[in-house]
Design brief:
The chain is mainly alpha-helical. It has two domains: 1-88, no CATH class; 90-172. The chain is built from seven helices and no strands. It has helices at residues 5-23, 27-31, 40-48, 57-65, 90-137, 143-161, 166-171. Helix 1 (5-23) packs across helix 4 (57-65) and helix 5 runs antiparallel to helix 6. It is elongated, with a radius of gyration of 32 Å. The N and C termini lie far apart (65 Å).
Amino acid sequence: MDHHCHWAIIAIFFGFHVYLVLKNRTTIGDMIDPKHKNNPDYLQYKEQQKNIYNQGKFWNFIFYFGKNPLLWLIPVGKPLGNGYQWSKNEKIEKINIQQVKQIQNQKFRINEEEINSIQQTEEGILLQTETEMTDIENQPLNKKNKEQIQNTNQITSATKSYKIQDSDIDQL
């Protein structure tokens, strides 16, 4: 059985490369481990994007092996392309552009909502500290009240220093 092992390995490699040809992919492209593979934005982008150079199984096969079926297993002749430029699938390219725009719009809306919620919570802290200060000011001064006044002043100044300006929103 050992004398058939090398044919099994060749058949596996042949099958894998036929799969790559039909999908118009390369072994290098499949081996590259993206740095951002755990980034949710990358995963969403990768999930929705399609290969713009994929012309369909039949035309991908013809592109690599040639138009003449008699020469498919004999490595002679010129390839169809010039090796520098490849034809793009216009439908997939338009879909990809639309999906990228949708993702960008969705990200912008999420960032805008986060900024609004931050502004609302900061205003809530400011209101809360102002009411605490009036309650504390009405009480007689002692060591505990002085510490409370200092703490609320620190919180108030901290929230005021981190106020988000309209110019910050415009930059997003």
